[in-house]
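Hi support team,

I submitted a single chain yesterday and got back a structure, but I'm not sure I'm reading the token output correctly. Could someone confirm the output below corresponds to the sequence I sent? I've pasted both exactly as they appear in my results page.

Thanks,
R.
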Amino acid sequence: MSKVKAFMKRKDIEVSLKRYGIDALGAMAQGLFCSLLIGTILNTLGSQTGVEIFTTVGGYASAMSGPAMAVAIGWALKCPPLVLFSLTAVGWASNELGGAGGPLAVLFVAVIAAEIGKAVSKETPIDVLVTPLVTIFAGVALAALIAPPIGAAANYVGTLIMRATELQPFWMGIAVSALVGIALTLPISSAAICSVLGLTGLAGGAAVAGCCANMVGFAVMSFRENRWGGLVSQGLGTSMLQMGNIVRNPKIWLPAIVTSMITGPIATCVFGLEMNGDAINSGMGTCGLCGPLGVWTGWLNPSADAVAKGAAAISPTWFDYLGLVLICFVLPAVICWALGLLCRKIGWIKDGDLTLG
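Hi R., thanks for writing in. Yes, this is the structure output for that exact sequence:
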């Protein structure tokens, strides 16, 4: 056993929740952002402006989502070069075979293939042949074995959440909005989770509400400490920047969480806000304005996954736009600011508690 531990330490193979559930998942979200999400934005620009180059480049970017996720995971796991580059084939196979659950399949398969590749890396005189061969063969074989059932399971769970939200839009609006908003602020990836579950429709709209409540909420609530730089970095970047402060004083998170529990059911029950763009947008919030852009894209040109679940293009009305602006920007800013002010008055939040380092 001691020899095994020594070998794993030498190969930097660390079986832990942080390595796989935080580092790998977070990196996977960045891979998704740099491929599928950017591709979606470019495709939207192309379809709305008629400029073909946007659509062409967007299509190429979206097609590379599997390899991009796998390489990002390999980078997070500190893979040597031959293993890292071999993960492109593994990511492609896993994403294709996983169908709607492709991102989840990529996560599982790429992690295992990466660790196998690291284990054999530089252990033979013909490393340039052995390492890529073992990594690709093990990864693609594993993808063929487990990616289809993973995809089916993820699709089932996502569909279950979406149907539950349609049947109980109030209670599920609260639950989905709060949970996805919390995931967005934690050092895990709400975008990857939403993509894995294929979260579209009303459930996707509730997820957008929760993410925006955290991002815009923290940006506005901490304005007195962080001024304009904090407003932009949190409102258009990520509320994850507050995690250090949350660890020191968890009460600072209450206004954002309560705000998400208010805006979630308003999104589902009042405005019927649906996310029918790519599911990853459901977990992005106002990061690069991806959440609102995803909703808008879904109105005009629903994603293939959303169409498969019954979505269709619509001509948005002034009421739809009003709901989008209120849910994504106005209500999170007003409600979270007011709740934050209340928490300051009762002493739960003190000056400096929200200062970014």
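A quick pointer for reading it: The two ends are 42 Å apart (CA to CA). Let us know if anything else looks off.

Best,
Support desk
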